[in-house]
Amino acid sequence: ENVELFPLALDRVRGWSNLSGHFGSNGGLVSGDASSLRSGWSEIVPTFALDDLVEGQVHFLKIDVEGAEGRVVAGAQGILETSRPIVTTELSLEMLPRVSGISGEEYLDGFEALGYRISLLNRETGQPDPPITATKLLADWRDPLQIEDLLLLPPGH
Q1: Contact by Cβ (8 Å): 50, 79
Q2: Alpha-carbon gap, residue 29 to 22, rounded angstroms
Q3: What is the C-alpha separation between 3 and 95, in angstroms, rounded?
Q4: Bridge-partner residues for 88, per DSSP?
Q5: Residue 95 in contact with residue 66, Cβ under 8 Å?
Q6: What is the pLDDT of residues 79-104, one digit of tens each?
Q7: What pLDDT, in 10s, does the model give residues 41-75?
Q8: Which residues contact 28 (CB under 8 A, 6 or more apart)?
Q9: pTM higher than 0.85, yes or no?
Q10: Is 121 exposed, middle or buried (0-12, 13-18, 19+ CB in 10 A)?
Q11: Contact, 127 vs 93, CB < 8 A?
């Protein structure tokens, strides 16, 4: 009853993007060049900034969008600054620059600038590890193809 589905993709701004449903994968945003469009493996979808779609207080955001996390967060700055929601986000140091055009450091620095504390969600326990700085987390990153889930807590949580 409290869920509403929208046939669109979240991004920095309102516009259009090329979305592929990669066979055997979760899909994701792909290049909008002519060969990608002619391949038949993608479709053009409308994009909107989350800030333009949501009114009122936001308590929690879960962001797992195959490297487009930076784009979604760029379109949710108003929500992050005013609502200060708890955020869980996937992080791939390979996909984030390729799809969002920013580094893992830039992505996490944006949250730290807003006062968020970063914790790795432990796959074995299902619980967050103790808070860690973005610098330390990235220095300990084992493999560029590694994908992790993070818990980002705003000030006061």
Answers
A1: yes
A2: 10
A3: 28
A4: 62, 151
A5: yes
A6: 999 999 999 999 999 999 988 999 99
A7: 667 889 999 999 999 999 999 999 989 999 999 99
A8: 19, 20, 22, 65, 66, 67, 68, 95, 99
A9: yes
A10: middle
A11: no
